[in-house]
Amino acid sequence: MSLAMLVLLERLTPQGRAVYVLREAFAYPHRETAEVLDLTEAPCRPLHRRAVQRVTSARPRFEAVPTRRAELSRRP
Question: Distance between CA atoms of 49 and 60, rounded to whole angstroms?
Answer without folding.
Answer: 16
